[in-house]
Amino acid sequence: MQKRKINKKKIVRFLSLLSLFIIFIAYMIFMAFKSDKNQTGKNTPGSTLTAQPAETPAETPTQTPIQTEEPIDTEDPDDEGSPAVEPTETSKPQDLIIRTDYEAFMPNEAGEIPIIMFHNFIEAYEEKTEKEFTTTFAEFEQLLETLYNEGYRLISMEEFIDCNISVPAGLKPMVFTFDDGSIGQFNLVEENGTLKVNPKSAAGVMIDFNKKHPEFGLKGIFYVNMDKGDKTFEGAGTLEERFEILLSLGFELGTHTWGHVDYSDAKNNSAERIQECLGKNQEKIEEILPGFRFYSLALPFGSLPQNKSLRPLLQDGSYNGNEYHHETIMAVGAEPSVPSVSVKYNSNYVRRIRAQGREPVVCDLTWWLPRMTSSRMFISDGDPSTIVVPEAKSAEINKEKLGDKLLITY
Ligand SMILES: [Zn+2]
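Above: inputs. Below: predicted complex with zinc ion.
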């Protein structure tokens, strides 16, 4: 009996200690999980997109912070739109910061958005390197730094199409496009049995830059020609693996026709030919990525069919019983684009600016940079659910394109 009694006491004491220990461990696990979750959220590209405010901001500024004039073309690279200003509403860091002190940072969401067109990337120029469409990785990295410092932030083609722009208040959206699916743009290398993005590729340079400046954005659309098959991007991995890794990083795929056709050429000027070149590209990518739909077309050479009545087929058509639809059709030159909510917007011929190649040319990005002044460019209000423009520019907004977005003038 005595023995049993002692045992019981011991067991009770042991159990109490054990339950205290379990509670302590559970608490530690909970805390560790919580901080890990916060960490991940911070580094997820595009996380601000999902962080839409539950309420649309009031039309009239509430508690407008006291603020002296703040230039948009700031010289300070670290100026994220205004450290001196207390935002009117804040949520967790990295979430959307909604500002309604418009007079202070002068948003203009009727302004232009530069859509940059890239082609080839190489390690170093050689004597025979073509001069206008090739960039070195080092120059590209330098360009990212320049664009970041000048207040540009990347948005995707999808965000451009929907004018769903959540770059921070006072900063400028920009779109990156890459034509032809060339190796220097993106390719995979195998390391210890796993596939990774080659750091010596434009996408690889962007991934590294994103580690330094995640708020710049890891976005861009790659326009591919499916007739190139395994030659698209080249390098390690199957075409499916290449596409899947590219998409998983947040990049997009667009169509550049089957065969890189020149639509200004008479032999391509028929309804059959246009639909074949676009439909085949759509059909082929669906074989590799079931259910995938191209929604943007980049015209090879920027050329349109001479026969104007055929042009609608660039946007909508069908081939082999399968329909295709392109929400934007991208040109080649040579100026920033109006936003999709502008009365001047033509989704069937959206202007792009070519990146500078080995040598500068008129109307390339280097030429445009000093000309893209804050008075002409799209300056974000930081809230994708509102379109904010100065009173004088409200007529430039196509009210029918607003959807459920709120137009605010000031
Ligand atoms: Zn091309």
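The chain has ten helices and 16 strands.
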